[in-house]
């Protein structure tokens, strides 16, 4: 029995039967975390991750030799991802139809990890209803050197402004410098309407609170402020998926949090791939019950 248990481990195989090669390859040189560690993290949280990511067109950040070497952003199918990574044809703005990727189970996630994927980024809509986004994302991007406390203040402010329009929102640490404020939608408004709302809302917020926010993407316009990145809300744009690992120092992950706990969180990279157990516990707790779940109409204004 012992021998068999050992074999299973050395077989480079996970409970889902996806072979992970080179488990010992170091992906995060700063702390020695390996491809095997990354695969184990994803095998542990796959169920949580799929709640949001399943059947969304996704883009992958692949770093086959680890995060410190060459990484690339993959949007389209290269034909090499195997049977568990699915395809959805998407007509792009130039009229060309391209196959985008999606996954619907743990096998799909792990097949991507086997191919060197660290990060998963998703569209705002699902493959079955591509033209109707089911969420708004406001990506808070602080100016260089701005304290995380400023990001928290801005997120709370944004929550209140969106609540004034009737929208319930959920915060997510990006695993990087910022926070995403997410408003789930009922997928009845199309991209044009959703993008238009996101832009008008963001410009109005920046005009009303110019000390805190800018809606201008240009870095030299940021000046100690937070860029309210509304461009995540256009067709073809992506945002990092909840529970995705990041190809950044320390193996941080994008982590759903509750508004009630934001006060005591110190950084956008508070959780890492070492924290699978804690993330699972948290997700099952009262604090995060119903996170990301709401069927809301896009406000009219
Ligand atoms: P941070 O909190 O550090 O800003 P982030 O994930 O929000 O982390 P951004 O640089 O603000 O990072 O990017 C927002 C989103 O834009 C990303 O999550 C990703 O989905 C998308 N994105 C980033 N880089 C690219 C790229 N090269 N091509 C296409 N989309 C990208
Ligand atoms: Mn950001
Ligand atoms: Mn951004």
Automatic annotation (TrEMBL):
Protein name, as recorded: DNA ligase (ATP)
The species this protein was found in: Sphingomonas brevis
Lineage: Bacteria, Pseudomonadati, Pseudomonadota, Alphaproteobacteria, Sphingomonadales
């Amino acid at each position: 029995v012992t021998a068999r248990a050992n074999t299973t481990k050395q077989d480079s195989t996970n409970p889902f039967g996806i072979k992970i090669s080179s488990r010992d390859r170091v992906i995060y040189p700063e702390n020695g975390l390996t491809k095997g560690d990354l695969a184990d993290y994803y095998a542990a949280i796959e169920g949580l991750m799929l709640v949001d990511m399943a059947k969304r067109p996704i883009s992958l950040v692949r770093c086959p030799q680890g995060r410190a070497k060459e990484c690339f952003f993959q949007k389209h199918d290269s034909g090499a991802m195997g049977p568990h990574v699915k395809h959805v044809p998407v007509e792009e703005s130039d009229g060309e139809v391209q196959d985008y990727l999606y996954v619907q189970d743990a096998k799909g996630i792990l097949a991507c990890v086997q191919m060197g994927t660290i990060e998963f980024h998703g569209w705002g809509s699902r493959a079955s209803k591509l033209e109707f986004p089911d969420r708004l994302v406001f990506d808070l991007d602080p100016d260089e050197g701005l304290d995380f406390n400023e990001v928290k203040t801005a997120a709370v402010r944004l929550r209140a402004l969106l609540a004034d329009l009737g929208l319930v929102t959920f915060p997510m640490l990006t695993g990087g410098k910022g926070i995403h404020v997410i408003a789930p939608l009922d997928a009845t408004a199309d991209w044009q309407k959703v993008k238009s709302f996101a832009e008008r809302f963001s410009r109005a917020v920046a005009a009303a609170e110019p000390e805190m926010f800018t809606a201008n993407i240009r870095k030299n316009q940021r000046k100690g402020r937070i860029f309210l990145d509304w461009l995540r809300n256009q067709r073809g744009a992506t945002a990092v998926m909840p529970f995705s690992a990041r190809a950044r120092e320390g193996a941080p992950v994008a982590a759903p949090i509750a508004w009630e706990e934001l006060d005591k969180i110190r950084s956008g990279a508070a959780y890492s791939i070492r924290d699978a157990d804690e993330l699972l516990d948290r997700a099952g707790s009262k604090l995060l019950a119903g996170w990301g779940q709401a069927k809301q109409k896009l406000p009219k204004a």
